[in-house]
Specification:
This protein is of the alpha/beta class and 538 residues long. It has 17 helices and 14 strands. Strand 9 (221-226), helix 7 and strand 10 (249-253) form a beta-alpha-beta unit. Helix 4 (131-138) packs across helix 13, helix 6 crosses helix 7 and helix 8 runs antiparallel to helix 9.
Length: 538
């Protein structure tokens, strides 16, 4: 047993330690000099024990639910400071921003810490908690949800997760600042933590603190990020190196490392055609799934390989030509698009061959007044507005979110004994206020552009040629199309011998690959094998 956990279990943390700390209340502040010395948050930790059966083998574990405190790196609201100075005011007496970051860690019994891989997992958003990976993929328990249809309301069923990754690695599920039970406080707190580089720095601080607290500096280390968490994860690979931490592996699920590939309204952002190219194979996969492909082939993978070739060949060339594309060629491309996507030729001609984000989900089954999912296009739901141009909600999110959040709230409070009387925030609305500026390696300042962490990952892999990268994706994911991940890695600026460190795995599921039971088993087996191959340990 890990010594510090043995002490925790013997002592049984005091009831107050089970509560996420809240920032000081207004009117209760101490004098400025004293307030600067006193932290805004205190560490919390509650220990418990449990077991999970994976592959027919029982795995006993110790669990710790708690928080670590990280600090602002120094991002300041310069406009506010200048305005204060002009007004003759000064707010330097206010405490600098801090974040109390919530985590749930699972440590397998009977394995020396220095000889046991450890994996840090998180979802993305930005503004999402990690309840999804925790309760749907790799934690010791899993909420049961219906596959590709709406899960009925409570009571929800939580079962032993026979696909938990505890058979291959210790696990640490982390919630970003401000979500889950994590909280932020202090001067310019939103600016300090709600941004690409601020977020990466906070997680780098968290991981290094965790390694020290639990004596895991010599463990094989992995980072597993999903969705926006892949951007965070790729940035962390380099940020951790800068703190003298080399990862054994970076695991990406539903990756989006270059936001130039995110689709937009072609009327608003004309001339940017990459998003339509990388999204096309997902549209084709969806049409194939819903039997909207003429002469539907049996082999999905062979069909998608054909579509990928068309997307980067004839289709890409047609889009590049823009208004110079001749009418007969435009007609021919529209007909091919129609054959692959199930959308009508007249509709595709009206779109100028560019399918706007949200439009495909709304249009594919419009004659049935049904909308496909965005995170997972296997899911269907009644169209809210048959006259709308794009989908106005995501049927997959509506189908399973309540089950995940309801099950976790019960599990964390009753089994992990954490958070009594405190709100768990499954997500917060910060997408539109996020600071998307990123300073890639070699740049003298943050760039005013959509973020791209491919340079960060490339530098990390060049500096550590042993770093392995695993790319995972679902064929039915419109939000982060699987082919975007392939396309990104084709442009990763590293030598061929290092590029061979990247491997790819794709599944007949959506953004949350694990929502499809056969794909959950497949991704568990693939990730467990990846960890075993790259850790050189038990």
């Amino acid at each position: 047993m890990i010594p510090i956990l043995a002490a925790l279990l013997a002592a049984q943390a005091a009831p107050a330690s089970a509560q996420p700390p809240e920032p000081p209340k207004a009117g209760a502040q101490k004098p400025a000099a004293e307030a600067e010395k006193e932290p805004l948050f205190k560490l919390t930790e509650v220990a418990s024990t449990g077991s999970v059966t994976v592959g027919g083998r029982r795995i006993g574990y110790q669990a710790v639910a708690g928080t670590l405190v990280v600090h602002s790196k120094g991002w300041e609201d310069t406009d506010a400071i200048e305005n204060k100075a002009k007004a003759g005011g000064d707010d330097d007496d206010k405490p600098k921003a801090e974040a109390s970051m919530f985590y749930t860690a699972y440590f397998k019994n009977g394995i020396p810490a220095s000889d046991r891989p450890i994996t840090f997992l998180f979802n993305g958003g930005p503004g999402s908690s990690t309840v999804w990976l925790h309760m749907g993929a790799f934690g010791p328990v899993r909420v049961q949800t219906a596959d590709a249809v709406h899960t009925p309301p409570a009571p929800y069923s939580v079962v032993n997760n026979d696909q938990s990754l505890l058979d291959a690695s210790d696990l640490v599920f982390i919630d970003a600042p401000g979500v889950g039970f994590s909280r932020i406080a202090g001067k310019d707190k939103e600016k300090a933590f709600y941004g690409v580089d601020q977020d990466i720095d906070a997680f780098a601080q968290f991981i290094t603190q965790f390694l020290s607290k639990y004596g895991r500096w010599n463990s094989p280390k992995y980072v597993f990020g999903e969705s926006y968490g892949t951007m965070r994860g790729a940035g962390l690979a380099l940020a951790l190196q800068n703190k003298d931490v080399d990862l054994n592996g970076l695991i990406l699920l539903s990756d989006i490392l270059n936001w130039d590939f995110l689709p937009d309204d072609p009327q608003i952002n004309p001339g940017v055609d990459y998003p339509y190219i990388v999204s096309l194979p997902t549209y084709a996969a969806t049409a194939w799934y819903h039997n909207r492909v003429a002469n539907r082939p049996v082999d999905l993978q062979a069909f998608l390989a054909e579509v990928e070739g068309f997307a980067t060949g004839e289709y890409a060339l047609a889009l590049i030509k823009g208004n110079d594309l001749q009418p007969d060629e435009r007609q021919r491309i529209a007909e091919k698009l129609s054959a692959y996507t199930g959308l009508s030729v007249p509709y595709l001609l009206k779109t100028n061959l560019r399918i706007q984000y949200g439009a495909f989900q709304k249009e594919l089954l419009a004659n049935q007044e049904q909308t496909t999912g965005t995170l997972d296009t296997r899911f269907l739901g009644a169209t809210l507005d048959p006259l709308s141009k794009v989908a106005s909600y995501d049927p997959q999110s509506s189908a399973i979110s309540a089950a995940y959040v309801g099950a976790f709230n019960t599990y964390v409070r009753q089994t992990l004994h954490y958070g009594e009387g405190v709100e768990f925030k499954s997500g917060i609305d910060i997408y539109g206020d996020w600071d998307y500026k990123h300073q890639p390696p070699g740049a003298s300042k943050p760039l005013i552009a959509l973020p791209n962490v491919l340079p960060d990952l490339a530098v990390a892999m060049k500096q550590d040629p042993d770093l392995k990268v695993m790319v995972n994706g679902g064929y039915y994911d419109v939000s982060t199309p699987y082919f975007a991940g392939k396309f990104e890695m084709r442009h990763l600026p590293v030598p061929a011998n290092i590029l061979s460190n990247v491997e790819y795995h794709y599944y007949e599921s959506g953004h949350m690959v694990y929502a499809h039971p056969p794909s959950l088993k497949a991704i568990h087996d693939n990730v467990a094998d990846f960890i075993r191959r790259t850790s050189n340990t038990r």
